[in-house]
Specification:
This protein is α/β, with parallel strands linked by helices and 644 residues long. The chain has 25 helices and 14 strands.
Amino acid sequence: MRDLLARVAGSGARPAGGNVRRDLGGAALAFAAASVLGNWVEEFTAFEWSLWAVQAILALSLTLVWGYGGIFSLGQAAIYGIGGYTYGFWAINLADNTGESLTAVLVAVLVGAVFAALLGYFMFYGNVTDVYVAIITLATSLVLFAFVNSTSGRAYRIGDAPFGGYNGMPRIPRITWRLPGGESHELTRTQFFLFCVAAGLLIAVAIRVLSRRPFGRIAVALQHNELRTGLLGYDVRWHKLAVFTIGGAIAAFAGALFAAWGRFMSPPVFSLTPAALVVIWVLVGGRSSVSGAFVGVLVVKGFSSWFGGASGDNEPIVLGVILVLIVLLLPGGIVANLSRLRKWTQSRISLSADRLGADAETVDRKLEPDLASPTPEVAQQRARLIATAAVTKRFGGLAAVDAVTLEFPRGVSCLIGPNGAGKSTLLDLLSGRQRPTAGAVMLDGQDLTKREPFLRARGGVGTKLQVASVYESLTVRENLWLACYAMPRDIEDADRRAAGLLEWLDLRDEAEQAAGTLSHGKKQWLEIGMVVSTDPSVVLLDEPTAGMTREETERTASLVRELGEKASVIVVEHDMDFVRQLDAPITVLHMGSMFTQGTFEELSGDDRVVDIYLGAHHTNGSPTDGRAEVDSAIIAEGSADADT
């Protein structure tokens, strides 16, 4: 398998993204503008603007968690509140003794991160699905609201700092700092504003940089296709937990700044309104844009002040109207739509005779092979024996797979059978997508039965699903890069392999095209390329030629035969012409059990096989050409719905 990949190795650029210097330059310009404004306006006005920067940092936490990681959390405001209360407890008790409160900010960030990690662990390692993550995080907020609201007694205090119950925690110190042996300095209102702006801009740059690193790309991949990410060998639960924890740390940091800004914390920070407000900020600005966090807070606060007037009773109505208008008129948020408008304008301006030549030049540069660097020496990977031992899968009283014992040695093996025979279910048991009711799945004698799909993928089991499973919103190049990086490799190696696979799959012209726009056949090829790029020793292919042209089918057959020389390849297929081209041993499944085995020639003339496709007594006792009948039956069956 590895020598096959070595032949397609080349060099290429990493997936497109901005560079750090440009991001830092933009942040520096924004900070310079804020400095001019902050020193130009009255100090109280600058102090009021600080709240906008603090809330933008809170919105950034959800941008990371939801916009990049795909985790819809209604608990960011709750972690914000935890950060604020933690800062209050620490600063009230120690600021007078230490002469500074920056340590309290760090403690608040740590406590928020730990809380997010604990909550995330129970959610993600408990396999809680997306909608229930939102419910659990909201419920956590409301539980904290009820608890803090009930802590008004004198018993509820830590040192000199009371919880305060519904009255809140007063007299929280502002941000102070001092050098060792020096005097204590409290930030002025203007300095605090600039501190918050600088912190927000640095966090925004950090999120952008992180999104272009492997960790960030994997987080984005999770949002687009969690199933495929796991099948590539990534630990989905760990990556979700890491993103949620980092987002919690950012939210807690914002909470600490809020406590220092207002010098007061109260239970309503844990209520429903703040939880929903963070979501509205991010939706309005654009949930996949860091600048959208700043824009969303600014727009929502501006409209709330403008239309809400002096009465706070109008605020929910104003927020609801803003949200509905954004969802209907600007899906994706303000920043995303402005970006689309800018790109559309640029494309109209640059629509000239030399445009195609310029585009081709750009692609050539990205795909230009580094001919000077030698192809990595890769050892031949031994195919491994995957087997089932009386494996059974029941759905209620129905046995989709019933006590099947099979061995799949090196080479190509085919699974055929009528709809409902259990073929795809058996592949799911091999890949780990489903757990058997009884029996075992073995790989070279090792029991895989309880292993998660990502662990099986790391162990060399590659899976192509019945319906092409790719990252439809990402480019073809990014899809292949994520697959190449899944195994222990460095970034440059993944770049080279992804570029080589583009050539090998004949997808070079579609490299920067979204995978979702590919034709059905090319999408199948892309998924096969993603499976091959993980260096599997066992390859599971569920209907690999569905939707392909005859030429594509012939190329796929050639590829599968080549894979079979180095790996154990198990193919579920309805296209009998494709099965015939593979010239591989065939296992027939029927009603969840192994029915018979043999070569294509043997089975196509077997009346028992003809019977299970066409029904018993189909010939009324007359001799027929079994091969023709089986072929026609399976052609008809192939257009039906997928089997269990």
